[in-house]
Amino acid sequence: MDPVTVLVLSLSFLLLLSLWRQSSGRGKLPPGPTPLPFIGNFLQIDMKNIQQSFTKFSKVYGPVFTVYFGQKPTVVLHGYEAVKEALIDHGEEFSGRGKLPALDKVFNGFGIIFNNGNTWKDLRRFSLTTLRNLGMGKRSIEDHIQGEAQCLVEELRKTNDSPCDPTFILACAACNVICSIVFQNRFDYKDKDFLNLLKKMDENTKILSSPWIQVCNTFPALLDYCPGSHNIFYKNHTCVESYFLEIIKEHEESLDVTNPRDLIDYYLIKGRQENCKQELKYTLQNLLVVLSDLFGAGTETTSTTLRYALLLLLKHPHVAAKVQEEIYHVVGRDRSPCMQDRRHMPYTNATIHEVQRFIDIVPNSIPHAVTCDVKFRNYLIPKGTTVIASLSSVLHDSKEFPNPEMFDPGHFLDGNGNFKKSDYFMPFSAGKRICAGEGLAQMELFLFLTTILQKFKLKSLVPPKDINITPVARGLVTVPPPFQLCFIPV
Fold it and tell me: Signal peptide: which range, if any (predicted)?
């Protein structure tokens, strides 16, 4: 038998074996494109824009379908009805956390975001309770954000009308809000250690959203044996973790169990109370990852959304003008904006919601997993199967948002110009795994953006028609293109 025949027969055998394995012993998974042995649907998925590939598959296989990243099946939920039915109506069954090998390698199932089971529930409950005790959702944290907004304004004034990249100025403001809760401290916008921390976090966000990391998540062996940007991510993560360890050490040395100052103190006290139990949850490793979770979610997503908001307002100056007009009418030019103003500012509220809808900050959410064998729409999804909820498909639903690819605050306004809520607004995901900091993020976005627009006119370096708003990456998060602008005091 000649070598070519042997090769053809071998490949045919592997293909048949792969198809048999997928059709037997896996329940009745939803339909999907036929995977190849070992590589699955890799050749059919655009790693630069996975969401676009999902949209194409949904037109062929419907709103619930299966794709293979390598040899592992992943069920994709596409569209509002499927996402709602799974994450909300069957929230408990779909509340597991799916695998992301590039991140699992460092977080290893610790913390809040990438944890599972009772430990996840306990740490999430502890974090939410502690954050509320420290002011989240209360007037005290609003006062702090207002104060930080004034610090942000002063920093922007120092640009002296000159072109600047707002990336790290906005990141400093957002991060200081988290620091005040976690560390009971804020940092100067020129603090070198603080800026170095933010730069590493920003670099890691870009790396995690790159096509290379999507490839590594499909073929995890690459993480151990190939060079690439994932090694920079791990190096940066080690530096950030060392930074947190120093702060934890300082807290341990000065801890007063009768007077906790911040989240770290509350955690350390909880850990001491737990020492007599067999199952330890409040370990140092869990604390390190909880801090990473809070900083990553509380700094990067909020500052990136603010940055994208400024870019979109430069692109659509008529929207910026209408927002400023509403700010001056409701708030005036001197008083600091407050959350009570939002109910009287429908256009501004609609604009901020439209920014979040349009930019689609986390296109496919963070992968879920089913916690048990689940019968879903006449399919049987086995326990542990990874599930991806396409938030992008919900936020860009043309029935709910006419012309969804257009930036239009009118998507959140009724015929009388009043703010209109939408069940399709899911930038923070939905169900049991919804972002714990949603309320804090919404407060920051409103107070920071209205304070900036109250004090400055945004000036672009190029005509609006030439402004590029296409993201440079759409992986774990959506990353806006780099840009500069001038903040002109008014």
Answer: 1-25
